[in-house]
Amino acid sequence: MPGVKGLNESEGEEMDQETAESDKSSNDDTDSSSGSGSEDDSSSEMDEESCDKRRNECLQQMAELERQFVHMKEQLYEERSSQVESRLEEVKIGVALEYTQPLEELHQNLKNRLEVSDILKDLRLVNIKHMHEAENQASKQNLESEKALLWDSIKCDLEDKIRRLEEDRNSVDITSDLWNEQVNHKRNKRKADPHSLGKRKKPVTVSDILSFEFFFFYAFKL
């Protein structure tokens, strides 16, 4: 029976060895699981720290950017304000482009308008001069025409009077005897009246009348 007992002992040893190995493997598994849990905890803590650090860095960057923005905004405001003040000063003293360029255009427009006005004035003066000369010439022509008509009318009247006087003279020649008798009668009457000596008048003859008419005619003509 010693062989059976040895066999049983060897089998028991093998079972004990297997149990020990299984216990060891279970312990190893337990140790590995506990180790992995601790590693997970440490990694989560590292992630939170990195997030906090990253967040703080972002906040700092945002604060820095905001500070730079405010600084640049103030600087831009100061530059714009100085530019506006300098432009206002240039406008006040009359050297700003916003002032000089429109002013130059206004001066050029004024110069052009003055030139056009001078040309228009000269043309109007020439036109008025021509109108005056035309009216003066028309008045002279009208005067000459009226003088010619009046001259013709007076000439006709004088010729008619001369003709009538010649007819009267012919009739006087026919009745000269009667005329002489009347003249002699008047002379005798004046001789008889001593008061009428200083009041003699020269008798009017046809030649005197004709001379007066021709004198008036030529005087009017001149």
Set out the fold topology.
Elements: H1 2-93, H2 97-174, H3 176-192, H4 206-221
Describe the structure.
With 222 residues, the protein is mainly alpha-helical. It is 91% helix and 0% strand. The chain contains 4 helices and no strands. The longest helix has 92 residues, at 2-93. It is rod-shaped, with a radius of gyration of 76 Å. It starts with a helix and ends with a helix. This is Breast cancer metastasis-suppressor 1-like protein. Pfam families: Sds3.
Shape: rod-shaped
The pLDDT mean sits at 74
Total helices: the number is 4
What is the CA–CA distance across the termini? Answer: 205 Å
The helix content is over 70%
Quote the beta fraction.
under 5%
Give a quick account of the main beta sheet: strands, pairing sense, barrel closure: none
Uncertain runs: 1-9, 196-201
Sketch the topology as an H/E string, one letter per element: HHHH
Rounded to an integer in angstroms, the radius of gyration calculated over CA atoms is 76 Å
The helix/strand class is mainly alpha
Query: Can you count the beta strands?
Result: 0
Biased composition (Acidic residues): 10-20, 38-50
InterPro entries: Sds3 (IPR013907)
Protein name: Breast cancer metastasis-suppressor 1-like protein
Family: Belongs to the BRMS1 family.
